[in-house]
Design brief:
The protein is of the alpha/beta class. The protein has a domain at 3-132 and 143-189 and 360-619: Rossmann fold (3-Layer(aba) Sandwich). The chain has an eight-stranded mixed sheet. A seven-stranded mixed sheet has the order 14-21-20-19-16-17-18, with helices on both faces. Helix 1 packs across helix 4 (147-170).
């Protein structure tokens, strides 16, 4: 192999992009490529440099004086806003359009492509379902985060990156639409998911404030106290969710333990803090929730902390609250993470931007030519070596256009409908971020083998219910790594893989035999794609710390934006950070794949991203200044008194932007409060000549889009077999050459594809039977094989009814 091919190289070195976008989505997509070595050109006349966020979106890019200074045939990707038709795409070029709705959408096509972000947040459910404590008489809470646009930027970049990979095979580009509305929907899959037909013991204990042992009148009393007093709200938060609530420490700061979805971690916290005897004395047990005979213990099972009755849940909260006062939050954080127990000292975004470890990891990085640090790169590849320093936009740099020929067309070859068709991903990830990356690889055409753990520690809600959305388009097998023959199955999977996807820490990779050194012995060309919690581009003290989406919300400042003062609150349990991290992992993996193919390298890469960098990215528009007080906290309504959430009759809300010259804010609010939703929307249209939209829940948006009329948003019923029926979104966030992508197939139940997968790996029928018998391959749903389910009698153990 030519040593030149193995030298450090940024993955998109040699790729040239013309960024003709002025809106956030296209500019952020361009930045993702620029940070990975692409030459991103911006016409001098199109440069935006008047707002706080412009230095960030402009970095690592180059300006050109005019179109005359650019050789259009040398451009690989063109990024435009909306319906801009000023460029005729050449056959080898990829054209990315950032839009709101896909072309011809009869439901949402009336929305302007440059519509303000807040309208989309209102429609998709970001103002409603993201507040975990919204049932405390705050059904709608404003968020200043530009989530739809950020998600669209990452998804659009993924589509372009995958198209570049396919172009290496066929020589042709394509046109891509990145819908901001569809991208927002891609982030709420777990919040509006519907499913029926799982075995009773796996039909998950839900996240709810209704608990056994908490009568309605007492809940009402606690609710009223929590609304009036933030201290009482923290108290109630702790007693409802003791293993994922903020607790005051000796120094007055909050620590956030995170174990509410994981049996091993819940037990680990109790052991580490010396609670085991007290927990057992309270009647709490530790039982396997995947064993149907343990269903009667649902309300006292440490493996299901969300299901504990109120008395037992309160006991756990009391133990935590007392113990945490013995040390500072920072001391607890260091102690727990050293023990492998995920947690976070809750701090503000301003504190995070000054955090020494974040700076060491280059999650927050200096930029050459600028006085202030910025959020750093969001993905990194080992093959890139030491990434160069970030740099200020270069103005009017002379650009050389020689030596950049257009790719030759492959004879008779056309772009594949799904650009990653033919590649193989083996997905060992769990929870949401990693599986979301695997699902996205499948949407882009890759064959995805989903490998489940033989002894799951996460609750059935995580491993079963959420996977109803995340298992779509995958082939699922469950392997018990401790049984004879299991490692050979893993070896055969790795031998086929272009990418091995996993969300484990470095030491766990070694124990599973999935570290880079071990992979090289089986398949040197495979790419190790690792999702981590606290990592950045550079190693740091926290690089191997564990974490979950909610814990990182506390660490990077998201929680301090929501909830009343003194009561930090989550901004969604899954949809703010987890999905974004998964999609960023896809970007990292496809970058590594493209780099490998261009270099024709025999050596696979090691690509990474983390929850920390993606949680930070959700706040990138707030790096220099915080939003006004009206956009923060539990009562947040909007950026101004005229552009905000307005309450209307029936406990509903709308979002609208009124011209201050045409309406007094207080008078307008009073007028709208006397109207229902339709009347309020009509008032904005007729009297204020302005657009308003209803503030919807995720479920209301899903119901609106369940008839299949919208090409942008389609909430679809899918039959997964064996009586399992799932309703979730179609992946319209990918649209190639005018055709939105659909799911390859409905989600498969965990492990149900084992016979097919093993046959594809070369196992005979007799060998498959032997692997089943030995326990190396685990039954469907960690329960029974398909043939056993068909003869299973109806009925079974019942859960106790909840109050």
């Amino acid at each position: 192999m030519d040593p030149e091919r193995e030298r450090p190289r940024l993955p998109y070195a040699g790729i040239r992009i013309l960024e003709k976008a002025c809106w956030l989505t296209g500019r952020l997509a361009g930045l993702l490529f620029a940070d990975q070595g692409a030459e991103v050109l911006v016409l001098e006349c199109d440069v935006n440099d008047s707002t706080d966020v412009d230095p960030y979106l402009n970095r690592n890019k180059i300006t050109a004086s005019s179109m005359d200074a650019i050789s259009m045939s040398s451009i690989d990707i063109i990024i435009v806003d909306g319906d801009d038709n000023s460029f005729q795409r050449l056959p080898h070029q990829i054209l990315l359009r950032t839009v709101v709705a896909l072309p011809g959408d009869p439901v949402f096509g009336h929305l302007s492509h440059d519509i303000d972000e807040d309208y989309l947040s209102a429609l998709t459910g970001f103002f409603t379902n993201m507040d975990m404590m919204g049932w405390l008489d705050r059904p709608a809470t404003y968020t200043p985060l530009k989530l739809c646009s950020i998600y669209a930027a990452v998804i659009g970049a993924n589509a372009c990156a995958a198209a570049l990979v396919d172009r290496l095979r066929c020589g042709k580009g394509r046109e891509i639409h990145a819908s901001r509305l569809a991208a927002g929907l891609s982030a709420i899959g777990a919040l509006c998911l519907k499913q029926t037909g799982l075995p009773k013991h796996l039909d998950a204990v839900s996240i709810s404030h209704h608990r056994s042992g908490l009568p309605a009148d007492l809940l009402k009393k606690y609710k009223q106290a929590a609304i009036a007093d933030p201290g009482k709200q923290v108290w109630l938060f702790q007693r409802l969710y003791p293993f994922m609530a903020p607790y005051r420490c000796k120094d007055g700061n909050f620590i956030l333990p995170m174990a509410t979805f994981n049996r091993r971690l819940a037990v680990g916290f109790c052991r580490h803090l010396g609670f085991v005897d007290a927990v057992e004395a309270a009647g709490i047990v530790d039982k396997d929730p995947y064993d149907p005979t343990n269903m009667p213990f649902d309300e006292c099972n440490l493996a299901l902390p969300m299901g504990l009755d109120f008395q037992k849940s309160s006991k756990c909260a009391e133990l935590f609250a007392s113990k945490f006062m013995e040390k500072t939050a920072k001391e607890w954080e260091e102690e727990f993470e050293t023990a492998g127990l995920p947690c976070a000292e809750i701090q503000s975004f301003q504190d995070w931007m000054q955090d020494k470890d974040a700076r060491m990891a280059r999650i927050v990085a200096d930029v050459e030519g600028l006085p202030e640090a910025q959020l750093g790169r969001t993905a990194w590849l080992k093959s890139a070596g030491d990434y160069p320093a970030l740099r200020k936009m270069e103005r009017n740099k002379k650009v050389e256009f020689t030596g950049h020929p257009s790719p030759a067309d492959a004879a008779g070859s056309q772009p594949k409908p799904r650009p990653l068709d033919g590649y193989v991903v083996v997905d060992f990830a769990n929870v949401i971020a990693g599986p979301a990356a695997g699902r996205m690889f499948g949407e882009l055409g890759a064959t995805v083998y989903k490998v489940g753990p033989g002894l799951p520690q996460h609750a059935p809600m995580v491993m079963m219910v959420w996977q109803a959305e995340l298992h779509q388009g995958k082939k699922s097998i469950i392997i018990n790594h401790k049984k004879e023959g299991a490692q050979e199955i893993v070896r055969r999977l790795v031998a086929r893989a272009d990418i091995v996807l996993i969300n484990k820490m470095d030491d766990q990779l070694q124990s599973l035999g999935l570290d880079r050194e071990t992979l090289d012995k089986v398949n040197r060309r495979t790419i190790l794609l690792q999702l981590k919690a606290h990592s950045g581009e550079k190693p740091s003290a926290r690089s191997n710390w564990t974490g979950y989406d909610p814990a990182l919300q506390g660490k990077v400042g998201l929680m301090t934006r929501f909830g009343p003062p003194g009561c930090p609150n989550f901004h969604g349990v899954a949809s703010c950070v987890d999905y974004l991290t998964g999609y960023m992992a896809t970007f990292a993996g496809v970058a590594a794949l493209y780099s490998r193919e261009v270099r024709q390298s025999a050596q696979g890469d090691w690509a990474s991203t983390s929850l920390a960098v993606c949680a930070s990215l959700t706040q990138f528009t707030l790096q220099k200044h915080e939003p006004p007080a009206s956009a923060l906290g539990a009562s947040a309504s909007g950026m101004t008194s005229h552009s905000r959430i307005f309450k209307v009759k029936g406990g509903k809300s709308i979002y609208g932007q009124a011209d201050p010259a045409k309406a007094d804010a207080d008078a307008l609010a009073a007028t709208l409060a006397s109207m229902d939703v339709e009347q309020a929307l009509a008032h904005f249209k007729s009297s204020l000549k302005s657009l308003a939209v209803p503030v919807q829940t995720c479920g209301e948006m899903a119901a609106l889009c369940s008839d299949g009329q919208s090409t942008t948003a389609h909430f679809k019923r899918k039959d997964a077999g064996q009586g399992w029926v799932v309703e979730t979104w179609e992946p319209t966030w990918f649209c190639f050459d005018g055709r939105p992508v659909s799911t390859l197939w409905a989600p498969t139940r965990a492990g149900s594809d084992a016979p097919q997968v093993l046959a594809e790996l070369g196992y005979s029928t007799e060998e498959v039977s032997a692997l089943k018998k030995s326990g190396a391959v685990v039954p469907t749903n960690w329960y029974k094989w398909e043939e056993e389910m068909e003869t299973e009698p109806a009925g079974g153990l019942k859960r106790k009814e909840r109050a």
